[in-house]
Automatic annotation (TrEMBL):
GO BP annotations listed: Golgi to plasma membrane transport; intracellular protein transport; vesicle tethering involved in exocytosis
Protein name: Exocyst complex component
Purpose of the protein: Component of the exocyst complex involved in the docking of exocytic vesicles with fusion sites on the plasma membrane.
InterPro entries cross-referenced by the UniProt entry: EXOC6/Sec15, EXOC6/Sec15_C, EXOC6/Sec15_C_dom1, EXOC6_Sec15_N, EXOC6PINT-1/Sec15/Tip20_C_dom2
Cellular component, GO annotation: exocyst; plasma membrane
Record's keyword annotation contains Glycosyltransferase: no
Domain spans labelled Exocyst complex component EXOC6/Sec15 N-terminal: 58-223
Keywords: Exocytosis, Transport
Gene coding for it: LOC109099862
Length: 757
């Protein structure tokens, strides 16, 4: 039983293997090429007996299966196929019609294309010929570059062309000289050389014109960056080519002479300034730029070429230019009235000189010129500050500066070095003795020093030289400009006694501040004032002179005021007796003098005393002149008495010490001549006068005989009316004779004095 089962299992296993093998064979037949089917089928027969029958059964089954699938597919696509055939049948007629049109178009295109084809072939032949000609020309150019005029227009091959022509003349043409074209070439070569010379010379002229137009740009670059023309601003190749060409042609001297001649002409044009150059800094800048550009180019030519220009030639040009430049700057700078413009000119001259000095040109004369420009700068500064000072003086109120608090006080002393222990102790509000113009003037002097210092910058000067320049320019400001402004101010009609007093006070404080200006300059230059040859400031003399002028003007104005009062005098010279009181005009005059001298308390004592003495002397002289006036013919004793009352008031005023500081009766001595003369007439003490005349102890020592005679003549009996001597005739005619005797004696004294003199 087990055996049967085993066999059955084995048979079943073999049957499965056979089926699997057949399935593989069928798949291989379906997927492989027909040529490979034979070996596959052979494997069926190599297997178990009757295996091919089972394979055939399997194959038939597979075929039937495929037939069924094909049939299904055909059934599925049959209707689409029928529809496609129907559509094809419909377009058959259109396709035949289109085919006919295409054939007709093709025929016509073929007919038209025959002419185009022929022309295309002709173009092709022409282009081949053109290409061959171009190749021939190119080869000829390579072989004989000097042969064609076209080559002469190529600036880069001038030199090589000349070399080639030289080789043709000396080597190649002699070898084939029997040919006619060689003779033609030999005749053409000199013409080509001249053509090259002309073209190169034209190129040089263009170069010269270009650098003439652009010399200001070249100079601007050089002055700004200290660069030579080695950058892209200038192309010097035309000069080099032309120089080489003329050298090769043996005509270098002609080229050198032409170049130098043209550059001399251009130098004269560059050195010619515009007429309005002095009006703006741009005019000066363009002028300097052009000159720098010119000489920078020449310096480059000098170093880049051998002998085209020489150092002697450039030195000659520079010396000529330097003289012209200095003359031009002297002329145009004299027109400058703006210090800022003069300062800009100085800066341009410094840059100009430094730039050209860097190229080896001597510039000492330019730096010497700067001293002249400095003087011009100082002149413009002085004129500017004259206007500043004048404005300050015109706006001043000539009153002491009021300060309400500590802040205002510090504001003033920060601008002006004022120190007064007594005033500092005073309570606010208080007044400073000087007027507002004093700190303003002091500040402006410092501003002037700063402005003057600006000119010294970049001049490569020592501190001592700068210190000397600052002090000299400041001295000019003080001694000339400020002094002139003060003198003019003092002489102005609207400046009265009060203003003159304030001016004297102001100059006193400004004089005191001069030492601080010295320190101010020292701090700037770091040069000690004790250094040998250090210039001192002359401000002391300036303010002293101004103060003396103001003092003199005070004396003058006081005398003028006294004269105005004197003109108001209205004496009745024939009056019988006096009014018993002084004249009104004189009392007004004395009151005016008292109030005026009270203002003088702020002046230095000597000034006030001198003014007071001057006023009293002038008053005494005016009164004496009034008595002795030739227009006055008669004077009565009553008028003498009235006049005496007025002189007494003058003496009382003098003795009241209107100005402190006089010793004893010094001020009263101003009226001593009047006093002795009036006493002589009031007392009628002629015997004493005549007896003591000429003696040092004479009571009437100050009475001159001519003065006494003139007054006595006015009192003689020349008419009956109002004659003081009429009563003498009534009482004692002998007195009349006495008077006649006195007159004779006085005349004798006067005559003796004249003979002695």
């Amino acid at each position: 039983m087990n055996t049967v089962t085993i066999r059955a299992n084995m048979a079943e296993s073999e049957s499965l293997e056979t089926v699997t093998e057949h399935e593989r064979i069928l798949q291989e037949i379906e997927s492989t090429d027909t040529a490979c089917v034979g070996p596959t089928l052979r494997s069926v027969y190599d297997d178990q007996p009757n295996a091919h029958k089972r394979f055939m059964e399997k194959l038939d089954a597979r075929i039937r299966n495929h037939d069924r699938e094909i049939e299904k597919m055909c059934n599925f696509h049959h209707q689409g196929f029928v529809d496609a055939i129907t559509e094809l049948l419909k377009v058959r007629a259109d396709a035949e019609k289109l085919m006919g049109q295409v054939s007709d178009t093709n025929r016509r295109l073929q007919d038209a294309g025959r002419e185009v084809t022929a022309q295309t072939e002709e173009v092709i032949r022409c282009r081949i010929q053109q290409r061959n000609m171009a190749t021939t020309v190119e080869k000829l150019q390579l072989c004989i570059p000097g042969e064609t005029p076209h080559l002469c227009k190529n600036l880069s091959v001038y030199y090589s062309a000349l070399k080639t022509m030289e080789q043709l003349e000396n080597i190649y043409i002699p070898r084939v000289s029997q040919y006619r074209f060689c003779q033609i070439m030999a005749e053409t070569l000199p013409k080509l050389r001249e053509e090259i010379k002309e073209i190169s010379m034209s190129d040089l002229k263009d170069f010269l014109e270009s650098i003439r137009k652009h010399s200001d740009k070249i100079g601007e670059t050089a002055m700004r960056q200290s660069l030579g023309p080695g950058n892209d601003l200038v192309d010097f190749s035309p000069v080099y080519r032309c120089l080489h060409i003329y050298t090769v042609l043996g005509d270098r001297e002609t080229f050198e002479n032409y170049y130098r001649k043209q550059r001399k002409k251009q130098a004269r044009l560059v050195l010619q300034p515009q007429s309005n150059m002095h009006e703006t800094v741009e005019g000066y800048r363009k002028y300097f730029n052009q000159i720098v550009g010119f000489f920078v180019v020449e310096d480059h030519i000098l170093h880049a070429t051998q002998g085209l220009v020489t150092r002697a030639f450039t030195d000659e040009l520079w010396n000529m230019a330097l003289s012209k430049i200095i003359a031009v700057l002297r002329t145009h700078s004299s027109y400058c009235s703006d210090p800022d413009l003069v300062l800009e000119l100085k800066n341009l001259i410094v840059i100009f000189a430094d730039t050209l000095q860097g190229y080896g040109f001597p510039v000492n004369r330019l730096f010497d010129l700067l001293f002249e420009v400095r003087d011009q700068y100082n002149e413009t500064l002085l004129k500017k500050w004259a206007l500043v000072f004048r404005d300050i003086f015109e706006q001043d109120n000539y009153s002491p500066i009021p300060v309400e608090n500590e802040e205002e006080y510090k504001a003033v002393v920060s601008r002006f070095p004022f120190h007064d222990a007594e005033i500092e102790k005073q309570q606010f509000p208080k007044k400073l003795p000087m007027s507002q113009s004093v700190p303003q003037i002091y500040s402006q002097v410092k501003e002037f020093i700063y402005a003057s210092l600006k000119f010294s910058e970049s001049l490569h000067r020592s501190s001592t030289e700068i210190d000397d320049m600052l002090r000299k320019s400041t001295n000019l400001l003080l001694t000339r400009t400020l002094s002139s402004c003060l003198q003019n101010l003092i002489k102005k009609p609207h400046i009265g006694l009060t203003e003159l007093v304030q001016i004297i006070i102001n100059t006193t404080h400004l004089e005191y501040a001069c030492k601080y200006l010295e320190d101010f300059i020292t701090n700037i230059t770091n040069v000690s004032p004790e250094t040998v040859h250090t210039t001192r400031l002359y401000g002391l003399s300036t303010f002293k002179d101004a103060r003396h002028a103001a003092e003199g003007e005070i004396y003058t104005k006081l005398n003028q005021k006294i004269d105005e009062f004197i003109q108001l005098a209205d004496y009745e010279w024939g009056m019988a007796e006096s009014d018993g009181r002084a004249s009104g005009y004189l009392m007004d005059l004395i009151n005016f003098l008292r109030s005026t001298f009270q203002v003088f308390t702020h002046l230095p004592g000597k000034v006030a005393q001198t003014a007071c003495m001057s006023a009293c002397k002038h008053l005494a002289t005016s009164l004496m002149q009034m008595l002795l006036d030739t227009e006055l013919k008669q004077i009565s004793m009553g008028a003498i008495q009235q006049f005496n009352l007025d002189v007494i008031q003058c003496e009382l005023f003098a003795s009241s010490e209107p100005v402190p500081g006089f010793q004893g009766d010094t001020l009263q001595l101003a009226f001593i001549d009047l006093r002795q003369l009036l006493d002589l007439f009031m007392v009628w003490d002629w015997s004493t006068y005549l007896a003591d005349y000429g003696q040092p102890t004479s009571k009437y020592l100050r009475v001159n005989p001519s003065t006494a005679l003139a007054l006595l003549e006015k009192m003689k009996d020349t008419s009956k009316k109002n004659n003081i001597f009429s009563q003498f005739r009534k009482n004692d005619r002998d007195k009349q004779k006495l008077i006649e005797t006195v007159v004779k004696q006085l005349r004798s004294l006067v005559n003796g004095m004249s003979q002695h003199s």
